[in-house]
Specification:
Largest sheet: none
Number of helices: 10
Distance between the termini: 39 Å
Oligomer: single chain
Number of strands: 0
Radius of gyration: 15 Å
Order of helices and strands: HHHHHHHHHH
Helix content: 55-70%
Shape: globular
Length: 134
């Protein structure tokens, strides 16, 4: 087995290891999930689109990381936006429901940055689309 760290993209155009990432076990990929999630800080990067299915496949392991990113104290509001508009829609109902407290906080008590970067609207939209699908 290759060291999973070697499979992390090296730059925004490096999708050379996507298929290998898909084949990793949960235990193999979990240590590099934070580094993979960082590549969707800008979904306009070519590698981001390729990583979204890989990340969605590991949504359960990602949920604690995403909850941390969605906290009011986290100031990378563009990253929050991309998570809510590009990654979370690929998640199961159960995963989205587990994010509900964070989403509701963004809608009801957003930070200035969340408002400016349209995170509030993204959270509201995700909640609306998943409403009643418990």
């Amino acid at each position: 087995m290759t060291d999973a760290r070697a499979l992390v993209p090296k730059d925004k155009c490096d999708g050379s290891h996507i298929e290998e990432l898909k084949r990793l076990s949960d235990g193999e990929i979990e240590p590099i999930l934070p580094r993979l999630l960082a590549w969707i800080q800008d979904v306009n990067w070519p590698v981001a689109a390729e990583l979204l299915p890989v990340l969605a496949q590991r949504q359960t392991a990602l949920l604690p990381l995403i909850r941390e990113i969605l906290r009011a104290e986290e100031t990378d509001d563009v990253w929050k936006y991309w998570i809510l508009t590009s990654l979370a829609p690929l998640f199961s109902e159960e995963s989205v429901q587990s994010l509900r407290p964070a989403l509701e906080r963004i809608v009801t008590a957003p930070t200035r940055g969340e408002i400016e970067e349209e995170v509030t609207g993204a959270a509201a939209s995700l909640l609306r689309k998943r409403k009643g699908k418990d």
